[in-house]
């Protein structure tokens, strides 16, 4: 093994590591938050968006879409609101007036939660709900409506039979059968997904759904890539898609994930990630560890206290990513049969017109 040379002076090492006064300092980027955690940290448990202070009405306003939603939800502002009035009086104000804030922030830094993986899952869920509503002819957004549920059951049976896509089937471990790969393949229109999903929808609605599918697919691919992106072109595409949805389907709900994708993703990429897609901030790796966390928690961690339990799980997870252990791990030579089958020519033309530098 090569001899490890420890630098004697303060210096910046690689990948967010620095040597300061003989101690290694690790820069931690806090970006892996789901909506619940973001709400706990920034105190905005009742907010429509954890990046901007837009209300539910503003999120559905075409004027706001055209002018853009600034990332303006700041922790300092939230603290200031509490400082101005008595806490009990403040919480009695209407939600819009207190910007969706439900408790004092427990974080001292602003919350920029990228969540590129969940963007795929949540936006695909919204897209499928749009199809179910159109199939049921029910143009009021109510996912629990009986007609919409009947359409959902019928369409997911068709997709399973004709395309082998297991979509929106509840899982015994929570969540649904929809994975990122399924969402990506459906957005890429593999196995004639759109044809089968819209087999009993009005002909006039199909081109609208196709355009939304193409645009959302391209935006999601950009967000989940590590490519250098032309952010102004991406902004144009996002705003065009957002406005198109509001005009064509004014009755459809704009979910927080869809709003975040179409109004903030290009800004997060441009202002917080050096113009590159958010692959480096993806929660995909930590999500892939969920099954190990369950196994460690049940079988390989102390149950003497919550702290002991969590500490043992974290130690085991750190062991899994230890470079010395990893280099001895068996690696499969099997490679994913990708690229050639993962393409969709129309989407690729649009995608490549926005990418400045491909990292592949
Ligand atoms: Zn927002």
UniProtKB/TrEMBL annotation:
Domain of life the protein comes from: Eukaryota
The protein's name in its UniProt record: Uncharacterized protein
UniProt source species: Oopsacas minuta
Organism lineage: Eukaryota, Metazoa, Porifera, Hexactinellida, Hexasterophora
